[in-house]
Amino acid sequence: MAKEHGRGGRPRSEQARAAVLHAVDDLLLEVGYAGVTMKGIAERARVSRQTVYRWWSTTAEILVEASAEDAAEELAVQPSEDPVEDLATYLEALARFLARSPAGAAYRALIGEAQHDSEVAALLEATDILGDSARVVVERALEPGPGSLPIDQATALLVGPTFFWILSGRDPDQLVARERAEAFMHEVHAGEIAGTA
Fold first, then answer.
1. Are 47 and 97 in the same domain?
2. Is the pLDDT of residue 9 over 60?
3. Comparing C-alpha atoms, which of 26, 36, 163, 161 is closest to residue 99?
4. Segments forming the whole domain that contains residue 70
């Protein structure tokens, strides 16, 4: 059985860890953020509460880890010869993740909680769930050079419109990923030209 070290340096069972991460996703969908407890997670995962507390201090920590792990998989884009197509593929995956994925539901719940809980806000700041995946695609699409937009700003420019659209309750099916990808490339190049002027 694969093992890795938890916070206390003790080896942890990968099977138990995976069970906890799946349990937190399931519970979030069933009972909502406020109803998810460490006890409930332990019972659903069929592990002891001591096991859960050995690796995580709060339900938010578990949700962040579960969401980040799933996002890395769900938002990964295989590179093609067309950077605009890669951006469009990423934006389609992003809309799906935010609107329909259990991991996306966890992320949306965490964003809401972060508005009034500084510890959750700090967790999200430390683990850039969307930024990490977007950065890979943006770096492949853009060539760094004089006047180029800093990568974090470019990433925010790519993710921002879809993020706002979904989190404000709009219909994700109305988003056209290819159009958004083309607009992103136009905005970035316009910014680069303005920056060098």
1. no
2. no
3. 163
4. 64-196
